[in-house]
Design a protein that fits this description.
- Helix content is 35%, strand content 23%.
- α6 packs antiparallel against α8.
- The protein is globular.
- Strands 1, 2, 3, 4, 5, 6 and 7 form a seven-stranded mixed beta sheet that branches. It has a three-stranded mixed beta sheet with strand order 8-9-10.
- With 286 residues, the chain is an alpha/beta fold.
- Bound molecules: guanosine-5'-triphosphate (GTP) and magnesium ion (MG).
Amino acid sequence: MKSGFVAVAGRPNVGKSTLVNALCGGKVAIVSDKPHTTRRRISGVANGDGYQLVLVDLPGFQRPLDPMTERMQHTVDHGFEDVDAVILVLSARERIGAGDKFVARRVFSLGVPVVIVLNKVDNLVGGHIASQMQTASKLGDFHALHPVSAKTGDGIDALRDELVGLLSEGPAYFPLDQRSDLSLEMQVAELVREKALQLTREELPHAVSVEVEELGKKVARALIYVETESQKQIVVGKGGSIVKEIGTRARPEIEQLLGHPVFLELKVKVKPKWRRDDRLLERLGI
Ligand SMILES: Nc1nc2c(ncn2[C@@H]2O[C@H](COP(=O)(O)OP(=O)(O)OP(=O)(O)O)[C@@H](O)[C@H]2O)c(=O)[nH]1
Ligand SMILES: [Mg+2]
């Protein structure tokens, strides 16, 4: 049996979580078009013939602004301890620049193999992909470089094979039927947050957090925290339309996760400065 841990590093929004989901063959981490979606470390498990590959999804590298972002960057800084390899994710759709070089300096100094993944190559012309690959190849002494689309699945099997090749003899760290290290409550909270991210804009997504209060056989109750009364009005929407839509979108996925129907009860609550509340952040797993 071969097993091991591979951390996933990169700037915000390059597609790290989408990539982890693609490699694991199912949803482990929530995804959105807003940067700073991932707030905590999440292990996703890919089991195969004679191996268990654990992908460690991390928040994107950032300059901390408040206690929440400080905690997120702390998670990133400690996310590379005891991993067997690191994936450095780049977006083929953007210029490979100072932010990527900053992440690269960090991961190439770790002393473990670095696999560069040039993500989002779907619908790009070959010449552009080739020139981005050439720029990427100058970032450091990489083990392999894979152009992929985490969205369409293009190149994912080859990448998985590459990563499995880096594993050494070891035990299964997770039971075969477990796809992530998040508790069910956390997974439900994340699914609700994902839908809230889809339905909000600008600064609001960063001001939203979700906590599951009760997860029973028939009912799931969750609180959506925002920081101000005006944010609450936006998330609730006219006549409750937005919070209702969050529930409508989240419920099927929650039911699939739990394996049975649930009544999903969502409440929006103002919690001033929750991003500075260490006890709450701890409870939210951030
Ligand atoms: N076209 C295209 N879009 C992608 C691909 N992979 C991810 N995306 C999109 O890129 C956006 C960011 O994806 P995430 O997986 O949340 O990115 P992330 O790096 O985990 O972001 P943070 O958690 O915020 O650091 C989403 O809108 C995804 O749908 C891809 O291969 N092709
Ligand atoms: Mg993410």
